[in-house]
Amino acid sequence: MSDKQIRFPFRGLWEGMWLTLKTMLKPAPVTMYPQVQEEPVPRARGVIALDVEACTVCMLCARECPDWCIYIEGHKEEQPPSKPGGRPRVRATLDRFDIDYSLCMYCGICVEVCPFDALFWTPEYEYSEPKITNLLHNMDKLTYWLGTVPDQPPLEKS
Amino acid sequence: MTDLAMIHRSESAVSIELQTPDMTLNIGPQHPSTHGVLRLIAKVAGERVTDVEPVIGYMHRGYEKLSEVRTYAQITTLVNRIDWVAGFASEVPFIIGVEKLMGVEAPPRAQYIRMILTELARMASHLVFMSSYPLELGATTPLMYALREREYILELIEEVTGGRFHPNFNRVGGVKPVYGGGSMTKKWSLDLPEGFLQRARDAMDRMEQICDDIDTLVSDNELIKMRTVGIGVIPRDKALEYGLTGPNLRASGVAYDLRKVENLLPYDEIDFDIAVRQGGDCYDRYVLRIEEVRQSSRIVRQAVDQIPSGPLQTKVPRVLKAPRGQVYSRGENPKGEFGYHIVSEGARMPYRLKIRSTSFSNLSILPWILQDALIPDLVAIMGSLDFVLGDVDR
What ipTM was predicted for this assembly? Predict the structure, then answer.
């Protein structure tokens, strides 16, 4: 340290200033967010979307959720037989599918255990609310997000 | 009247205000240099700290108790929140402990993916240190430099796992292989996305560049050296006595790295060195972490080149039940040894989970090392230990 100072006093400071100058002339890697939308990667766990038609009210997601933030209610509906003379079908229909995003840990276990392709991740991120109770999103909102599910990215050759 | 009492009387007769007997100074809980909520009850005599008592627990979330009512798959999402700066690195020892209990082993490709992501998490953690430590010493510029580069690391982690901080990508028997359980999502593989390996190589170029830049900006800076060289020296025997691990121990001259000792991940197929420094002061602890980032980038480069192909997960039963028994598995977190003692009674959930968190053990040296330190050095010493309060309180 001492012999460096003899050669040139505060050399470290000048080198630092030179680096600052070089960085100043480079373009900034910042996305100016409200004006320019950031594009998350396709796998980003932004929010969970629901396909109401595919859901069979099996409650697997609600049971496996680590902090039990999924609320499901449903009822059985009689369907007319598909062929004349056949047996009438019973189909489970969703009444309520709410996810409380103030509790959600974004772990993705519900998406993973769903056996009927009803839950999907989407990289949507603009759903902040001024009140925490408004983060309980219902079926309509979750269905709306289904339209934003991206395609799966191509994979590395292995 | 004895001489001592006479001197005492004469001194107090001169001025009562100048007498500064031990004053109690509360530092924290909300202090920017404490990386969370840590309260220090310091007894100070003038500018000198005579005694320090750390008060922890402001951030206790009870993960050990929560884990007793969660299945093994659900605990993975809890354990990466313990040390959130390097979430992936604290997932790996837990999941390997469960794998040991159940007697399964991850396929080689999954182990390599785990290794790459662990090293990326290590770099992210050290970059946070490289940005926050000069900030605590009063240099605000390196924060921007290091955090800018950390974003490239987090993007790499995100494009594989889907999460920047909380990857939750480890599963018992490998890494998460497919998107979901339905007939369509079962076919969506979660292997590395196209171009990841090349982007990882590019990011490693950036990492080596930022190490040089930070060296120029901070390590060679005279002011930083004045603040850190010879401050907070931990001798080798004290470091061993207090059970320090990780970079704090290696800066005191002990070449102990669990990546070489334990065989959790295939580090034996990779050529890398353990960074060691002899001084044990704040400057050595700081420079050693920059050296570790260079070594990590060496590991990632080699791992990316020789990653084997194959499946991402071995076959495991759908309902995971670990047989009766107990296991202690530990791994090298960016901050040191991170261990899990899992006791299983044969159920879907562990009977007891003991977390040996790194920062908690590293913090235990704080009362010793802060004895007779100056108050301005207190911040420098605490910052150089690099603890995260979420890791201390669990």
Answer: 0.80
